[in-house]
Amino acid sequence: MKTAIIFCALFAVTFAAVRPVPFDLNYYFETVEYNPKVITAPARRNTDRIIGGENDVKGEHPYQISLQRKNSSQPCLFHHICGGSIINQQHILTAAHCVDSGKVSDFRVVAGEYDLSRNENTEQIIPVIKLIIRSDWNLTTLNNDIAVVKLASKLTYNSYVAPIALASVTPPTNTASQVVGWGLTNYVRKTRPNILQVLDVKRTSDSDAAAISSKYNNFTQVAATTNIFCEGLCKNDSGGPLVFKQNNQYLQYGVVSYGLLPCGLYPADFYARVSSFKAWIEDNSRI
């Protein structure tokens, strides 16, 4: 533990320049599928987790999807670029910066995904036919980082594919929460796990969030932190849902948006605040 703390402290000094940046603004390609029916992934050199997270339990978060993008030079290859959440059978909620470039035909959604290295016969792979991005999404201010993705056909609900309810109100400060994703587990080596990772976090107060990030807006954004230094989100986690449990039901109150680099070294990560966009989301996700 002491060694890890010393390493993190040295790492923080090495990367002293701090700037808020969307995790997946400049994504790099990593193949997660070659044949549309056979999931494959590059071998990993380590067993690192989502910077302090752990392997999720299969089916525990059935609303989580993998948003994938086609490689323009190799059109048979798709790459995991962001997360997202199922809001109904034909619509996915994600971050605007995940889909604000490229053609609609470049994207697809994989629901029921758990292990990117294997086809587990729970995956549902569906092309995207429409990208609905907030017209006031602003890369400079990082505000309104939210989008709805429409699928070409309807998902089939089961134990591994199910929708998430959207929170009408953001929960209080320090509310126990969770976030899941296939984001980088090691910022330096740019590695990512095959298995979906889960990280326990808690909601950060607006005042603390504003002190951490100069871009923080307490109407359009919300922040969450971990209990341990050197934990947090990273590249390819963007678009994923921040959730809490109420009456034994998961409710989504955030969409992974941006953080301070290098990943995991700062007190909080930042999310689009779902309650501020709930009416817009519902208006743009009608079947």
In CATH terms, the superfamily of the largest domain is Trypsin-like serine proteases
Percent range for β-strand residues? 35-45%
Q: What does the radius of gyration come to?
A: 17 Å
- Widest beta sheet: strand line-up: 12-13-14-17-16-15
The assigned structural class equals mainly beta
Please give the CATH class of the largest domain: Mainly Beta
Number of strands: 17
> Count the helices. How many?
4
The structural domain count equals 2
Low-confidence stretches: 1-17, 25-50
CATH architecture of the largest domain: Beta Barrel
Residue-averaged pLDDT, rounded? 81
Short description:
With 287 residues, the protein is mainly beta. Helices cover 12% and strands 36% of the residues. The chain is built from four helices and 17 strands.
Q: What do you see in this structure?
A:
With 287 residues, the chain is mainly beta. The protein has 2 domains: 31-44 and 61-163, Thrombin, subunit H; 165-275, Thrombin, subunit H, CATH 2.40.10.10. It contains 4 helices and 17 strands. The strands form 2 sheets. It has a 6-stranded antiparallel beta barrel. The radius of gyration is 17 Å and the shape is globular. The protein starts with a helix and ends with a helix.
